Amino acid sequence: MLKFISHYPQPLSVSIMWFTPNCPDGGDWTKKGWWNLAPGESKIVHAADVDDVNRFWCYFAHAADGAFWAGDIARMAPPEKFEWCEWTSSTDANQIGYRLQDVGDADDFTITLAP
Fold first, then answer.
1. CA–CA distance, 55 with 1 (Å, rounded to integer)
2. Taking a C-beta distance cutoff of 8 angstroms, is the pair 99, 113 a contact?
3. Using one digit for the tens of pLDDT, what is the confidence trace for 68-107?
4. How far is the C-alpha of 90 from the C-alpha of 3, rounded, in Å?
5. What is the 3-state secondary structure (H, E, C) of 4-55?
C-alpha cells in the first residue's frame, strides 16, 4: 500500500503516478489525483503491494498556501479528480512536475509531507 501523511500546517492535495505498461490511452504510466489531506491526516492512495506494481512511483503535492512537493517529470493534470494515462490531458489541465520515489522492495510505503 502507498500512504501519505501530512505534517504540513495547511490543507494539501496529492496526485500519484504508477507504472502501467501499455496504458490504453497512451504511455506506460497511470496518473491519479486528487486526495485532500488536512494537517495531521493520512490517506492510503493505492492499496496494492507497491513493489509488486513497480519499484518506482511518482507523486506531486501542493498546499493551500502555495507550498509544493514536486520533481522534474512533467505531466498534465486537471484541477478536479481524475485517473488518466500519462499523456492524457484536457483544456483545463495544468502541467505539474512529479517527483520520483524509489520504494525498493517494500510492500507498504509511507510518504510524509512536512515543511
1. 12
2. no
3. 999 999 999 999 999 999 999 999 999 999 999 999 999 9
4. 27
5. EEECCCCCEEEEEEEECCCCCCCCCEEEEEEEEECCCCEEEEECCCHHHHCC
CB neighbour list of residue 39: distance below 8 Å, 6 or more residues apart:
6, 7, 8, 9, 10, 11
What span, in angstroms and rounded, lies between the C-alpha atoms of 61 and 82?
15
Nearest partner of 111 among 66, 54, 50, 31, judged by Cα: 50
Question: In b/e form, how buried is each residue of 46-74, taking b as 16+ CB within 10 angstroms?
Answer: eeeebeebeeebbbbbbbeeeeebeeebe
Residue 111 in grid coordinates: 510518504
For residue 9, what is its C-alpha cell?
Answer: 500546517
Name residues whose C-beta falls within 8 Å of residue 41's C-beta, 6 or more positions apart in sequence: 5, 6
Q: Which three cell numbers stand for residue 91?
A: 483544456
- Which amino acid is located at 14 in the chain? V
